[in-house]
Amino acid sequence: MDDFLPKSLAQTLGIVHPLLQAPMAGASNPDLVAAVSNAGGLGGLGAAGMSPEQLSVTVRDIHERTDAPFNVNLFHQSTEAYDTAALPDRLLAQQLQDYHDEYGLGAVPEPVPLFGPAAEQLQVLLEAGVPVISFHFGVDTATVATIHAAGAKVLCTATTLAEALQLQAAGVDAVIAQGSEAGGHRGTFDGDYQAGLIGSMALVPRLVDALEVPVIAAGGIMDARGMVASFALGAAAVQMGTAFLGCPETALAQPWDAALNAAEADDTCVTSTLSGKPARGIRNRYINDLERADTPLLPYPAQYAVSRVLRQSTVRAGSADFMAMWAGQGVGLYSNLPAAERVEQLIDEANTLIRQLSEPRGR
């Protein structure tokens, strides 16, 4: 079949298809990353929550499964800093303790660091020869220069034009335009996240027109129609996350997978209740209870840390009530195909659609 898809960024990244699998911390793993990369896309690993030691082992596992390029994603080191002495206010503390009592979990744990250290994580990636390194919540010029000196490419998320221009000035190889439809944490790093809730249809062409570096469309893209629409807007590639959550390689916890199979766009929401930072996921008991209580939240990532025992225990019990079930608004088009088949399907259908659209139509 003829290939009508854009080639320039794919060639820069050393991949066959202009298709990136979003890193998705907590869902991506060596099996998924390698399967996507071996199929010609760019597999992605979300590594922000991995210790340097764990990250080193995981990257080695990916290298053993594929010789193709792949991406590892980190959070900007500024997100690690928070007041470790911060404690929940009375209402939040009582709510959390009630949950712990319900499940027999004892006292609510105090916050602990969950992410980073980013500088040590980056050093692991550089020493391991990771070919593409991406960032969420921004990246600075010095970090980009260090990665380029090691021969790797740099990507970073933007949710507004102002952020995208900052990333271009920092020297990134491409900007990921994260539309408001995207699942997981909003990548906003300059200003209030509300200003960054711009849909992909508006954000992508604006960045394409304003930037000299390639733009990768992300957010709500689940099938060939979303891919082709993104290319029509000028995107050099697409990044898809929720579209790969159903792949058996992710080995999602059963309650999350079941929720994804049943969800529609309006079952998702952008909320800070889970981690302390705005993120899009499927509504559940925990989100609804905390939003209804309208109590002050702990700063990110302390808000995430105090629920860690609750989340882990209830997942083992088969409950979705307290899980962080990240998902984008395209979740209604959820698929359970294996990753390699998913990539092949997406590329074949995108080429077919472009060919059909280019054919003359009768009146």
TrEMBL record:
Cofactor(s) it depends on: FMN
Pfam families (alphabetical): NMO
InterPro entries registered for this protein in UniProt: Aldolase_TIM, NMO
SUPFAM superfamilies: Inosine monophosphate dehydrogenase (IMPDH) (SSF51412)
Single GO term (MF): monooxygenase activity
Entry's family note: Belongs to the nitronate monooxygenase family. NMO class I subfamily.
Entry protein name: Propionate 3-nitronate monooxygenase
Native source organism of the sequence: Candidatus Litorirhabdus singularis
Lineage: Bacteria, Pseudomonadati, Pseudomonadota, Gammaproteobacteria, Cellvibrionales
